[in-house]
Amino acid sequence: MNDTVSRLAETRAAIARAAGDVERRPEEVALIAVSKTMPEEVILPALEAGQRVFGENYVQEAKTKWPALRERFPDAEVHMIGPLQSNKAREAVALFDAIHSLDRESLAKELSREIARAGKAPLLFVQVNTGEEPQKGGISPGEVDAFLALCRDHHGLVIAGLMCIPPADEPPSPHFALLAKIAARNGLHGLSMGMSADYEAAIQLGATHVRVGSAIFGARG
Ligand SMILES: *Cc1c(COP(=O)(O)O)cnc(C)c1O
């Protein structure tokens, strides 16, 4: 077995254990294998081993890598997890099955327009800046309810859930719990939270999508 394939199996087993600990079923947690910066030859073994959901951070990179891979694996899904410029909304709607980084009204407006034009909508997650870090994207926790209402009522968007990236220097669990609380009071089921270092804690707090890169593909160069 190659390294990626064995680490993928370990990650799946850890997801099943974490879910089992809180009496959730492993199928309730989608594993997004974050393949940003990884070339096709590193991604292929994961596809061949049955992994079907991948995460990318850059429109341009996804556009060069995924059309060919999807020709071979038509049921592969690609999720945009990085910051998205409004002027890339059209390409993003065409390319991605989900966007985890909806974090401002100008982007909501562009996505709404492009979804109507394309006649198909990616799954949408609103990114929440749970740590209120100035350098990070995301809606402040206190403004999420109003932003969700704006997305739904004004822009006609269907929002699947919320996403967060906790501050690197803080324990992540309070951030995951906060995200789950905001989602629950807004009637949202989707929770995109947890990365290589903390996906098990995220699953125990209700994650429906974990975004795991280096634990599967190794360190990025
Ligand atoms: C890169 C990235 C990940 C994956 O990070 P790892 O620590 O390698 O698992 C997850 N989420 C986002 C938003 C990222 O940019």
Automatic annotation (TrEMBL):
Cofactor list: pyridoxal 5'-phosphate
Signal peptide: none
Keyword check for ATP-binding: no
Alphabetized SUPFAM superfamilies for the sequence: PLP-binding barrel
Record-annotated Alanine racemase N-terminal domain positions: 28-220
Keywords assigned by UniProt, alphabetized: Pyridoxal phosphate
InterPro entries per record: Ala_racemase_N, PLP-binding_barrel, PyrdxlP_homeostasis
Taxonomic superkingdom: Bacteria
GO molecular function: pyridoxal phosphate binding
CDD domains to which the protein is assigned, alphabetical: PLPDE_III_YBL036c_like (cd00635)
HAMAP family noted in UniProt: PLP_homeostasis
Protein family: Belongs to the pyridoxal phosphate-binding protein YggS/PROSC family.
Function statement: Pyridoxal 5'-phosphate (PLP)-binding protein, which is involved in PLP homeostasis.
Protein name: Pyridoxal phosphate homeostasis protein
